[in-house]
Design brief:
alpha/beta, globular, binds zinc ion
Length: 157
């Protein structure tokens, strides 16, 4: 396993936490100097907070942990391609490198649906690496939505 895969594995564990809480399973970890300083998973429903995406949770936790609003020289690992809100946040936080697993054709904001992270007006550039454990990261989401469709069907009978 590469270092990126090891951290992505941890992000996947966090995605499972989200799944257990019936939230869309996305997990994230923020790494600085080879150490995890923030972790998070999608909690929008349980916290009644539309901004509680996995990336935002990990970035908030990291900011608190290092007592700084700028996460210079950090790497953010997230199981799913960030949305526009999170891509903006990653830029504001000065994250150096973004590593994600599955691409999101619907709302991915690193160039899949729209490109916020590489937008010309962004004065902070983020290195982006996609496709790390993409299969596993996509599978947990597919399983979640399949199960949800199944239970939706059952409840209408
Ligand atoms: Zn997001």
């Amino acid at each position: 396993m590469t270092t990126d895969e090891i951290y992505m594995q941890r992000a996947l564990e966090l995605a499972e936490q989200a799944q257990k809480a019936d939230e869309v399973p996305v997990g994230a970890v923020l790494v600085m100097d080879g150490e995890i300083v923030g972790e998070g998973y999608n909690q929008v429903i349980s916290l009644s907070d539309p901004s509680a995406h996995a990336e935002a949770q990990a970035i908030r936790a990291a900011g608190q942990a290092i007592d700084n609003y700028r996460l210079v020289n950090s790497t953010l690992y997230v199981t799913l391609e960030p949305c526009a809100m999170c891509a903006g946040l990653i830029t504001h936080a000065r994250v150096k490198r973004l590593v994600f697993g599955a691409t999101d054709p619907r709302t991915g904001a690193t160039g899949t649906a729209i490109d916020v992270i590489n937008h010309a007006s962004m004065n902070h550039k983020v290195e982006v690496q996609s496709g790390v454990l993409a299969e596993e990261c996509g599978d947990i989401l597919r399983r979640f939505f399949r199960a949800r469709r199944k239970s939706a069907k059952l409840s209408t009978k």
